[in-house]
Specification:
Distance between the termini: 18 Å
Helix content: 55-70%
Structural class: mainly alpha
Order of helices and strands: EHHHEHH
Radius of gyration: 11 Å
Shape: globular
Length: 68
Amino acid sequence: MTRVTIQDLRDARYCLAGVRPWFRRHGFDWQAFLDSGIEADRLRITGDALVEPVITIAEQREACDGRA
């Protein structure tokens, strides 16, 4: 299962000042996310298309990590 991290948001060049309120609106714990990331499926269930680029980056990162 893919886990999205803060680094994935940075790599997607998302504005963290905008992401934090987005997390709050969707009932996600920002500090828990910073500490351990969040499952991609939890982001997908929001129905927000903006999560897909970040999930793609996380999937690519995990695929590269798995090859090492």
